[in-house]
Write a structure and sequence with these properties.
- The chain has about 850 residues and is mainly beta.
- A hairpin with a 2-residue loop joins β29 and β30 (about 520-530).
- α1 (about 1-15) packs across α9 (about 430-445).
- The termini are close together.
């Protein structure tokens, strides 16, 4: 569901603060309810359209619909997945009610009475289905492949609701009301803002577990997006995998337990409703509901084959009572059909996400996904190397026409869908929506394209800073895009400080040797202000914290000139190797000195040095999916398997003026795992050693955090540069209970708060030889700033907190358990307890 994040961002930015009262001018009104002819229950999301016209709508969750028209046809067509299409004559009158009763394509059997001891007989059926789960789980097949078609639609809706006190709509609301629109399932106008269609070949195998999608054709249109490769990959089959045989489904960054997963009896109640015939197979119809309505769990109906006890159909919902932000309802319908070998496979999946309005009178958003699988081939695995990369775009994936899509669609589009495709192009070209789209792209990507120059300005996050050394820092960064070249990527920046009056710069040239496997070579030269312990190597990918670290008081600052040459290649799925040569200088702006190594002829105490390093980094992330965004690769993260990183650094003395020979080895592992109903845990384990004698800026400096914000990869109650290590081991752990406790407290349930706990432990030390390198005074007789090291007592901090406050804020209470009286060489008292905040848009 990664693609939902960008589509949701589009809809959220467009609808925030909007409120509009509109009156649809219509001559005819047709309303009624679509029901199952056998059960009388409402049929949700049925398509209702005029015969031979483009006007249409869909039924709501209870099967009701309302259609406002300017002209009538002779009949009304009603159709829904799994039911026979029906037509009803229309009268030439202003208002009429037509209640449609659809007959299922599945044949209901005569009444069957089942007698069982020990509760509802559904539990006996479920136990047998669970026992045979591995026999019918597609993930357990040796291999499978199929042809996939996916369609994604995004709409802004609910903006025509009446406002209190009959207030007039605001200017933005009036603009939204004037946009081209279609009629939604409630008979209200809805503005389409995103539509995509993708055709691909999908491959999977087990032992080892591999997946690959080859995107053949794709068409994307919408506000704030273009028909680019990144969106085409996000809207393909790779992110539409809904396997209910897994213990949980990861949807909207949430782990929702499956009703046929290992926690089925702990979380759900079951009731045997009936038996029906579906595609010539007799099936049990079993209703399931969460034991606690506030739990993050599905409710709905599933069909189990009575002969094989395999899943035949799934209808699952999550409503607004569950702890998911911004979602009013999540609905998944899935059909499983029998393959030639006798197994069942999900051949059609429909997903609907109806968002909750941000404010009582604001518009909402509706996202629909449709996926179909055809021409399924089983147990014919490809060679392991075939599955790399995991997502691949055909060179001509954009070359399509209307006739092609008409031919490859598994079913013809409804009139409403045809109308939406016509309208979305008009919507995106409205000046107001164009501006909104540019704002969305700037917020998501961080770069602003400069017209037809094929150059982008950014990242804007680093454009300005203010600190005690540079004063007011201004930075201008540029990079090229694929319009410039699909092989060469040029980037760089210039920065200037009004106080130090120094010009800083960086220039990077990268050349793509191969896209399959991904292979690049690059060089970089830079000169900029840095600070010990808060360098780019320590901060990692936390760009927000990196930008923040440029503000305020900067201690232990130095200027660094760096020359870097690197080679990076993807050796296999999740296996990336990087080799680099780096030469850098150290010019301190604080009292610093070091004693040269014993074998140096010149034993004069020095304050600056040069170092040349050979760096080898091996990264293994077997569960990670990498997307290609033009010339830039984007990681979608990993869920089930850990990520390992091994980094080895060798200092080369007398190479390009280098002053030291040294070695550094560091290994880290990052992982997260689900703990059933208790929530999800995240942890990072790291260890390293520097078995050499070097000045302390070359040793390991744990990342501290002196800000008021919580930083995930930092020790949040440790000061900057508080400790130095040449051998270390660390564990950082966080567990989010996902509202396990708060969901059960009546007064807190509506707030949707989520409780969490954290713990961070660091052990390490410094050898006596590295302590002896630092003299008491420098060559001018000034006192030299030294450093603190850990003793046998580990550094420990623990915390507890609440996130999802107002859906965006997180508050952590953190206790420092050791070194509580440590002032050390930094001269800054430590904080034994602090409240820190952070925030992000989470589901």
């Amino acid at each position: 569901m990664k693609q939902f994040l960008q589509i949701f961002t589009t809809c959220s930015l467009l609808m925030s603060g909007l409120s509009l009262s509109t009156s649809a001018q219509s001559t005819y009104v047709v309303m009624g309810r679509v029901t199952d002819a056998a059960t009388g229950e409402g049929i949700p999301f049925a398509s209702i359209a005029l015969k031979g016209k483009t006007s249409g709508t869909t039924s709501d969750a209870d099967g009701r619909y309302s259609l406002r028209l300017t002209q009538l046809a002779d009949s009304l067509i009603v159709l829904s997945l799994g039911y026979r299409t029906s037509a009803y004559p229309l009268l030439q009158q202003a208002s009429q009610t037509i209640n449609a009763r659809l007959t299922t394509t599945a044949t209901k059997l005569k009444e069957v009475k089942v007698y069982a001891k020990g509760g509802d007989p559904a539990y006996r059926v479920m136990r047998e289905a669970l026992r045979r789960r591995d026999e019918y789980n597609p993930a357990k097949m040796l291999a499978y492949q199929y042809e996939s078609y996916t369609k994604v639609e995004g709409y802004i809706n609910n903006f025509a609701q009446k406002r209190k006190n009959n207030k007039k709509p605001g200017p933005i609301g009036r603009l939204l009301g004037k946009l081209p629109a279609i009629t939604d399932e409630n008979g209200q106008p809805a503005v389409p803002v995103f539509i995509s269609e993708t055709v691909s070949n999908f491959y999977a195998r087990s032992q080892p577990e591999k997946m690959k999608e080859h995107v053949l054709k794709s068409h994307v249109t919408g506000v704030g997006v273009s028909d680019g490769g990144l969106i085409s990959q996000l809207t393909g089959a790779s992110f539409q995998q809904y396997n209910f045989y897994r213990n949980s489904l990861n949807i909207l960054q949430k782990d929702i337990p499956s009703p046929i997963g290992s926690q089925w009896e702990t979380i759900y109640r079951f009731r045997l409703k009936d038996t029906i015939v579906l595609n010539n197979a007799v099936c049990f119809a079993i209703e399931f509901t969460p034991k606690r309505t506030s739990d993050l769990a599905f409710n709905g109906t599933l069909l189990i084959d009575t002969l094989h006890f395999s899943l035949a159909q799934m209808d699952a919902r999550v409503d607004k009572r569950a702890n998911i932000n911004f979602v009013d309802e999540l609905h998944i319908e899935q059909d499983w059909e029998t393959t030639p070998s006798g197994l069942r496979f999900p051949t059609q999946t429909q997903v609907m996400i109806d968002t909750d309005e941000p404010t009582p009178r604001a518009p909402g958003a509706l996202i629909r996904f449709f996926t179909s699988a055809s021409n399924i081939v089983e147990n014919q695995p490809k060679e392991v190397g075939f599955y790399d990369p995991s997502i691949e775009l055909s060179d001509d994936y954009k070359d399509t026409d209307a006739a092609f899509w008409q031919r490859v669609r598994p079913a013809s589009l409804s009139p409403r869908e045809y109308r939406a495709m016509e309208v979305v192009d008009s919507v995106r070209n409205v000046p107001f929506m164009k501006v909104a789209g540019e704002i969305i792209k700037l917020g998501v990507i961080g770069y602003k394209p400069l017209g037809k120059l094929n150059v982008e300005l950014g990242p804007l996050l680093y454009s300005y800073a203010s600190n005690t050394i540079e004063g007011q820092r201004f930075r201008l960064g540029l990079r090229t895009n694929t319009g410039f070249s699909r092989k060469w990527l040029l980037s760089g920046y210039v920065a200037y400080g009004t106080q130090d009056e120094k010009l800083k710069y960086s220039a990077n040239i990268e050349y793509i040797l191969s896209r399959k496997p991904w292979t690049v070579i690059g060089v970089r030269q830079s000169y900029d202000l840095e600070r010990i312990g808060v360098s780019a190597d320590n901060i990692g990918n936390n760009s927000l914290f990196g930008a923040y670290s440029r503000f305020g008081t900067i201690r232990r600052a130095y200027f660094q000139e760096e020359k870097l040459a690197y080679f990076r290649r993807e050796m296999g799925r999740g296996f990336t190797q990087t080799v680099a040569v780096r030469n850098r200088s150290f010019e301190p702006l604080f009292p610093f000195a070091f004693q040269p190594q014993l074998h140096d002829q010149d034993q004069t105490v020095r304050s600056s040095y040069q170092i040349t390093e050979l760096i080898s980094e091996t990264r293994f992330a077997p569960d990670e999916v990498i997307l290609q965004n033009d010339n830039v690769r984007v990681s979608t993260g990993a869920i089930r398997k850990p990520i390992f990183t091994l980094r080895y650094t060798l200092g080369l003395r007398n190479v390009l003026g280098s002053d030291f020979t040294y070695q550094r080895i560091a290994l880290t592992m990052k992982h997260s795992f689900r703990m059933g109903v208790l929530g999800r845990s995240y942890y990072t384990i790291g260890a390293g050693i520097i078995p050499s004698t070097v000045p302390y800026p070359l040793l390991y400096t744990p990342l501290g955090n002196e800000s008021s914000f919580y930083v995930g990869n930092a020790y949040n109650l440790m000061n900057y540069f508080e400790f130095i290590c040449d051998r270390w081991a660390t564990v950082q752990y966080e567990h989010n209970f996902g509202g396990l406790l708060f969901n059960r407290l009546p007064l807190l349930r509506q707030l949707k708060w989520r409780e969490l706990v954290t713990a961070k432990v660091l052990v390490g030390g410094v050898s006596s030889s590295n302590l002896a390198v630092i003299p008491a005074v420098d060559g001018n007789g000034q006192s030299v700033e030294s450093f603190s090291s850990l003793t046998r007592t580990p550094y420990i901090e623990v915390g507890y907190g609440i996130d999802n406050i107002f859906k965006v804020l997180r508050v952590d209470a953190i206790h420092r358990l050791t070194y509580r009286d440590n002032i050390g060489r930094t001269g800054i008292p430590v904080t034994p307890f602090a409240i820190k905040v952070s925030g992000w848009l989470a589901f």
